[in-house]
Structures are given as C-alpha cells and as structure tokens.
Amino acid sequence: MQACNVTSNVASHAMKSRSSLALKEPRIQQFRALVHIARHGSFVNAGDAVGMARSSVWRQIRALERDTGSKLIEVNGRKVKVTPEGAMLAEIVAPMIEDFEKVVPEFARRKEEATRTLRIAAPPQILAHELPKALSYMRDRHTGLRMIITSVTSGTALDQLLNNEADVAVVGHMERLKDESAKLLAVPMTTFPMVALLPPKHPLNFKKKLTLQDLVTQPLLLPPQRSSSRPQIDAAFSRHGLLAQMHVALEANVFHVVLPYVTLGFGTAILGASRNYIEGELKNRSRDGEVGLRDVSHLFGDEKVFFLTRRTRVRQPHIEELCQLLCHQPK
User: Fold this and answer.
1) pTM
2) Structural domains for the chain
3) Pair 205, 268: CB distance under 8 Å
C-alpha cells in the first residue's frame, strides 16, 4: 500500500511540475505586448496595436516579467519605457512577432490569389485547337482572372495536376486515369479521330482501305511514349503481332514538327487529330497535294479527351464554368 502511495505521489508531482511549466511558458500575446510597448512607449498605443485594452497589456507584461524573472519595463506616469533587459528581449522576439502578424494577411492574400488564378496544362494540339475560344471567353468575362497555360504531354499534364502544379489538365485517355480515379474528377470532353499522314504520291494514298500490315511496312512517325495516343497505337499493332516489326523513325506529337518530315518522305505519321484541325489545315494541305490524309480510326479507335480536376469538396466557380464551356457544348 505504501509503494502505491509513493508511486501516486510521484505521478502527481510530475503532473503538477508539467502544469507549472506550461503556465510559465510565455505566450505570443505577452511578446507582442512587449514589442509594441518598446515601439510606442505607451500602454494605450501598444493596446491599440495589438487589439487589447490598456489593463490587458499591463497584465501581459507583468506575466512576462514573472515568467522570465526580469524587470522589463519602467512606468513613469503615463510614460512607459523598456529596461535594458526589456529592450534585449524585444529585439530578440520582434522579427518573430513581425512574421507572426503577417500570417493572417498572407493567408488571406493566398486564398484570394487561388480564387483568381487558373493554371491549365494540356498537350500542344489541344491547346491550339480546342481551348482558345473558351479561354478567350473566360479572359473577357473574368477580367481579374490570371491564367497560366502550360504546353506539355498528357502524362506530364496529369503529373502537374496531381502535384498541385495545375488546376486543370486536359488530356487524352490514359490507363493512369483509372489508377488515380480516387483523386481525380474526369469529365469526357471530345474525341480525336486517328489519322495517317503520308508523303505526297505515296502508293497507300490510293489504296481503298488501309490495314495495319500496310502501315507497319513504312517508317513510322509516332507520338512520344508519354503521350496519351502512343499506347493506343502500340496496343493495336501488338494485338496483331506486329509490334516488333514497327520501325519508329521520329517521335513527336506536334503537327508542325511532323509535317515537314512526312512531305520529305521520311515516313508515315499516325496521330490523333482535333476535328477542327482536320477540317481546316490538314484537308487544305491534302487538297493542295502537300500531304496524303487518311482516317485510320477503324484500326486504332478514336482518342478520348478528358477535362481533369482534383477531387475537392468545393470546386472553384471559374473551373466549373470552364468545364461547362468545354464539355457541355454541341460538338
């Protein structure tokens, strides 16, 4: 029984010691009061600066003196000045107090900036042919909205979204979207037909229907591995046992990079293409005899394009508006 009492007394003493220590630890308001008295030389002015009554400032200083075991101020009528020890302590804590007092304004600034900034990551073709009208509308409608637009592959756009380096990613379909479905909200936006671009006067331009066997005999100009469409192309060749026969002469998914090599006879390009681009520049080039244009969606399928955001409880209104513009308009 005596051992139990000793143990109980020791535990009780330890709890009291911890409690006493906690009570003696200076609080941030005590340091604020000291710093502003050092600056203003008055309880009233210091109280105005920290949002406290004169009596509260007095109590904070007295508590700080008890906790530090030092006399920190001298009072002469209505005038107050810090002692040498008070000045020393005020000099030590002043930078920390200044940083602390900036926390709430900085938090408010960042919150406001977050609601006024829209970071968009997407591949070059999507940026060039699918987004300009919608982003122009958003710019004109929201004059205070700061847009940051980055041209990257679909894989990199997805990485940026997951790493909070982008607010929106517009990408082609990837298997990774399934893996990250718990973190991402994916809204179908459009589809890109797969097209083959052939050198002018190439024999395959005149064949009624192209096959994978026809294409695999040609040097191929394909999108890079981190693009969304390359796995789709590789999978089609693989299903027919033709993957090992592929000769990839160039990897690029930007048409103005690929087209000169096609026209010079370096090989046949296979890419997913925006319908806007097909109906415009590609068909014009084909009619002018600069390049052969063939739809090969029957071999590879269409490339699906998605509007991606992170899953959050509340989505920013301008992100929701952009999604509506891009994903719910007639195609």
Assistant:
1) 0.61
2) 13-114 (1.10.10.10), 115-190+305-327 (3.40.190.10), 194-301 (3.40.190.10)
3) no
